[in-house]
Automatic annotation (TrEMBL):
It comes from the Eukaryota. Keywords: Membrane, Transmembrane, Transmembrane helix, Transport. PANTHER family: D-XYLOSE-PROTON SYMPORTER-LIKE 2 (PTHR48023). The lineage of its organism: Eukaryota, Viridiplantae, Streptophyta, Embryophyta, Tracheophyta. It comes from Aquilegia coerulea (Rocky mountain columbine). GO terms for molecular function: transmembrane transporter activity. Gene3D superfamilies: MFS general substrate transporter like domains. The keyword Isomerase does not apply. This is Major facilitator superfamily (MFS) profile domain-containing protein. The chain crosses the membrane at residues 45-66, 86-115, 127-145, 151-169, 190-209, 215-234, 349-368, 375-397, 403-428, 440-459, 465-490.
Amino acid sequence: MNSSDPERPQLSFFPKVTGKSFDEIDNAREPLLQDGAINHPRDNYSVLSAILPFVFPALGGLLYGYDIGATSGATISLQSAKLSGITWYNLSSVEVGLIVSGSLYGALIGSIMAFSIADFLGRRRELILSSLLYLVGALVTALAPNFPIMVIGRFGFGIAIGLAMHAAPMYIAETAPTQIRGRLISMKELFIVLGMLLGYAVGSLEIGIVAGWRYMFATSVPISLIMGVGMWWLPPSPRWLLLCAVQKNENIQGTRETAIHCLCRLRGEAIGESAAEQVDEILADLSYSDEGKEASIWEVFQGKCLKALMIGGGLVLFQQITGQPSVLYYAATILKSAGFSAASDATKVSVLLGLLKLIMTGVAVLVVDKLGRRPLLLGGVSGIVISLFLLASYYTFLDNAPVLAVVALLLYVGCYQLSFGPIGWLMISEIFPLRLRGRGLSIAVLVNFASNALVTFAFSPLQTLLGTGVLFAVFGVIAVLSLVFIYFIIPETKGLTLEEIEAKIL
């Protein structure tokens, strides 16, 4: 996409700035960090300057992963007569279920909230709000004097998850250099896995302490503080600033200068004179057709956004209904049946799988901007198909070959982290058009959490009705359908700016 395209109207409400260096921009702030400059004809940036705009939003993903890991240990501690440190430790299965799934249902609420408040708050302030809710939710849960207060804390923490998982990929996508956008957004999945490992580690260390569950939940407090302070310090997304100014037609020239300053902070001195050119290109794109008008609710289900919703929503739906929560649910049973007696301990099993997830996500991060999104999805999901049918075979007629089940389990986890895990979040963060990105992505995040909750809830009834082998075969068939969906529907976005994705793909 080029702002000089003759079919696009040229912007007349601001003068084009050329020939100015970084130091000559009025009141320009110092870049966040200055080092490791990389020269690129379109999008120069400093490596170190690009790190912090990724790290602080990604802490929202780390807290999400930490909640998954720590909750497993916390529920064991809570139900111990000797170690819980409370009088209400004798919890029913429903009460334990509310503690475990409370954050998931809170995340659903957060995703719904994001639909209405995301564009008003902006990506940065939404992440600040998320960090505040993480902090309050963790404190309420850790200090809970009774069960109802604990559930309220879990829901509050979950709302923070919903907001963070909505705003973080948007902020990273809109501020990251094009060349490493895929790598950075995929690394958010790496932070989720790191959070899970941290949660398992903290749980195993504090499981023997009286009231250890309080410390497990409280560990989220300092992380949420770091996230909040970091997001307060970072600049807003230049794209969001320009979108708001064009939609409201308010001080566009002043907002343009602010956007240039923000972009200089995000990229460092390496961006040089191209900051103004990049901002002008975004403004030119917003001025084209109706892209500068304020979005209505119904537009999410029309035109470009509907196509983006089919791509992103379909991808995260298949991400969950191919059985990801259920396969991990069976991990301990599979490893125990294979004779790994030490691995029968839930914590050790979780750490083993967590390490594999971490390694495979790292591989995806390293190659996503070189190989592209589609090759990783097609290759990874093909491996998922094979692993699910191997598991179905094991539970149907090969129950005397437990090693096969272990191989299938490890293959599933590895391939998921190479494909659906990081690429799902990457695609939904970059596929939606700018003016509808906040609302469109909130629907995709809602689909993700809702389908996760549905699969988790429906697994046991379906297992009883169909049998484990048949159920895994059903997941395998769904995975084949997802492979067809990826091949025919999912586009390749490698190397394209967000504006080029909107113009060429949608």
